[in-house]
Write a structure and sequence with these properties.
The chain has 4 helices and 3 strands, in the order ββαβααα. By secondary structure, it is α+β, with helices and mostly antiparallel strands. The chain folds into 2 domains: about 55 residues, Roll (Ubiquitin-like (UB roll)), CATH 3.10.20; about 50 residues. The protein starts with 10 loop residues before the first strand and ends with a helix.
Length: about 130
């Protein structure tokens, strides 16, 4: 258990690091320090001995805010926006194939007229 005299002296800090320009920040660990400067120095000392990093973030745990249940409710979608998701377009290839099979092209329609005229001419000449 913490001593009453040091209880308010140390604060919990969360440490994040980035290995190179292409990677994202990753959570590493928590540490106890009296202030931001000391927390950063402790995080640098820990990482410089172990692995190369290009950036370190040190954040006081009390500064991290979590969303309330009411705020989470505002993130839910009220209306259907499936058209924004790629899965919403999966049926289009099938639809297009059905459309192409059902559509008569101009040459096909004209060929019907020629066949009818040709058979009519054969009847009249015979």
């Amino acid at each position: 258990m913490a001593d009453k005299s040091t209880e308010g002296f140390y604060e919990v800090f969360e440490v994040f690091s980035k290995r190179n320009e292409k990677t994202d920040m990753q959570y590493q660990f928590s540490l106890l320090a009296p202030n931001h400067e000391m927390a950063l120095a402790m995080a640098q000392e820990n990482f410089m001995r172990r692995e190369p990093v290009i950036d370190i973030w040190v954040i006081k745990r009390s500064d991290i805010r979590k969303m309330t249940e009411e705020e989470k409710e505002t993130l839910k979608r009220i209306d259907n926006k499936d058209y924004r998701l790629t899965k919403g377009y999966g049926y289009l290839k099938k639809k297009w194939r059905e459309y192409e099979q059902g559509v008569l092209d101009e040459n096909e329609i004209l060929s019907w007229g020629e066949d009818k005229d040709a058979t009519d001419r054969k009847r009249t000449t015979s």
